[in-house]
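Question: Now follow the chain.
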Amino acid sequence: MASAGKLYMIPCPIGEGEAGHVLPTYNIEIMRGIDYFIVENVRTARRFLSRIGMGRPVSELSFAECNEHTRPEELAAIVAPLLEGRNAGFISEAGVPGVADPGAEVAALCHAKGVAVIPLVGPSSILLALMASGQNGQSFAFNGYLPVKPPQRAAALRSLERRALSEGQSQIFIEAPYRNVKLMEEMLNVLSPATRLTVAVDITALDEFILTLSVAEWRMRRLPDINKRPAIFIIGR
């Protein structure tokens, strides 16, 4: 029986810039040695692999999709090639897989089946935003998406603010890009004037914007263009 392959968790660029600007050469070497990729979206993954230069036609590679539409019973077939000794790479739409992106379920199944899971270095918008924010990097929490309905969203913001102020823990969250403006308006309406708020938009892209101000200061200035742009928000004290 062949020994199991390895699952490489492969980051990809967040923006549309050159992959070589944000990915180590080692990652590209690893990718060129893999012919089976588990991806959030095949079309996007093909485009990414074509950009880095695989040294062979992308049409010769095998792909399996794993995203929010993947059923739990489909995971066994996705992982099966690794159990036969084949290495695989997991690629999400942007940033790092398994963190606010698909991949955790496949990684968990690999652990259960004795398959090594190897994370590669690359851009995470969550950590990059925190790095540049000036907020507390010793204690922080990523909260994913907040509720969509305004009353529940306002309550969630107040809860995150209380934790940020009482514990000093930076509270990180995201929103669907087309709802960014509504979220920003809600934050400026709900949060206390002295609370520090970071807005980080299009991280690693040419038009990247990252700024931390108090809520009072945000209220006094023209707000940045965040409509339909990937953004990270951080509440802190």
